[in-house]
Specification:
Strand content: 15-25%
Shape: elongated
Low-confidence stretches: none
Largest sheet: 7 strands, mixed
CATH class of the largest domain: Alpha Beta
CATH superfamily of the largest domain: Bira Bifunctional Protein, Domain 2
Bound molecules: phenylalanine
Number of strands: 9
Oligomer: single chain
Structural class: alpha+beta
Mean pLDDT: 91
Distance between the termini: 91 Å
Radius of gyration: 39 Å
Helix content: 40-55%
Strand order of the largest sheet: 1-4-5-9-8-7-6
CATH architecture of the largest domain: 2-Layer Sandwich
Order of helices and strands: HHHHHEEHEHEEHEEEHEHH
CATH topology of the largest domain: BirA Bifunctional Protein, domain 2
Number of domains: 2
Length: 344
């Protein structure tokens, strides 16, 4: 058995070793792992104290207080060294690093809303003032709601007009917001007036006036005695509200889910009706396809077409923004270039 003096000498030796090793640590990681070797359960100090039970209580007191004192001293050495190393590492970061952390950050300029969102909010406000409620539908749609329920059966050539990217599971990224018409007719209590804005996708070669992804705003007004004159009045008012006073005209058009089907054109804002590249020399630009809900669409949704009637429209929303701000290339709306978007 070691004498008390031998044990105290051993503890002093541990302190000396600890001092040397901790003080010569080169970084915080190294320091920490060395420190653990001197204080943890498997440390040398603990080994020395292992046989303490065989000493008298007087001796235990002496050994105990000596070892506590040394533990504290080791702790102090560790704290001081850690502070020193942290300062050095921080200093290194500031001076040795290729990034100058003292350069002031980039000023993030505050911008306004994206023109599409700004005009969309304007349109939603306008329609809600006429009692239209906003509803939404999924962008990934079933062919049933995108086509069949809208009177566009699988083998009908009209389906090609909206040909799209088919997903492997048989769903389609919706080609128009008209799918929301079919969904709403099935579940909403009649009568109702809704608008449904959202993104649509088509198999298109992209150019200044065509994108493979674009925004539409669908509208559907169903009641017992809705007439074509209601459609005309409301859509003319819509154009006036969104684009200002413009010359308008309605032209017959074919859409399988409406009868009669129409296109609302406005006089070309780029050439004032004289004819230019953008209006394909017609002097007119198509802005709102529309029509009276086809009886089959009502039937598919379980509504009696002899009792209810309705009108529907589907505005190409990006085009409205384009006309409102005289933008001649739709692509700039999606490029995220703040120098350009900041102008609107
Ligand atoms: N869904 C049609 C399209 O995308 C537009 C439309 C909507 C036409 C509602 C008539 C009524 O081409």
């Amino acid at each position: 058995m070691n004498t008390i003096q031998e044990i105290i000498n051993e503890i002093d030796k541990i302190l000396e070793d600890a001092g040397n090793l901790l003080k010569s640590s080169e970084n915080v990681n190294e320091l920490e792992s060395r420190f653990r070797n001197f204080t943890g359960k498997k440390s040398k100090l603990n080994e020395v104290l292992h046989n303490i039970h065989s000493y008298s209580s007087e001796e235990k007191k002496i050994i105990g207080s000596k070892s506590n004192e040394v533990k504290n001293l080791i702790g102090n050495i560790y704290d001081a060294k850690k502070k020193e190393l942290s300062n050095v590492e921080h200093e290194k970061l500031l001076t040795g690093c290729p990034i100058d952390l003292t350069i002031p950050g980039k000023n993030i300029e505050k911008q306004h809303k994206h023109p599409i969102i700004a005009v969309l909010e304007e349109a939603v406000d306008f329609f809600s003032s006429m009692g239209f409620e906003m509803v939404e539908g999924p962008e990934i749609e079933t062919t049933h709601y995108n086509f069949d329920a809208l009177n566009i059966p699988a083998e009908h050539p009209a389906r090609d007009v909206w040909d799209t990217f088919y997903l492997l599971n048989g769903f389609v990224p919706r080609t128009h917001t008209s799918s929301v018409q079919a969904r709403t007719l099935e579940k909403k209590e009649l009568p109702f007036r809704i608008i449904a804005p959202g993104r649509c996708y088509r198999y298109e070669a992209v150019d200044a006036t065509h994108l493979f992804m674009f925004n539409q705003m669908e509208g559907l007004f169903v009641d017992k005695n809705v007439r074509l004159t209601d459609l005309k009045g409301i859509l003319e008012e819509t154009v006036k509200n969104l684009l200002g006073a413009r010359k308008t005209r309605f032209r017959p058009a074919f859409y399988p889910f409406v009868e009669p089907g129409l296109d609302l054109d406005i006089e070309c804002v780029f050439c004032g009706g004289r004819g230019c590249g953008i209006c394909k020399n017609t002097g007119w630009i198509e802005v709102i396809p529309c029509g009276m809900v086809h009886p089959n669409v009502f039937k598919y949704a379980g509504i009696d077409p002899n009792e209810y009637r309705g009108f529907a429209f589907g505005m190409g929303f990006d085009r409205i923004v384009m006309l409102k701000y005289n933008i001649n290339d739709l692509r700039i709306l999606y490029q995220g270039n703040l120098d350009i978007l900041g102008q609107f």
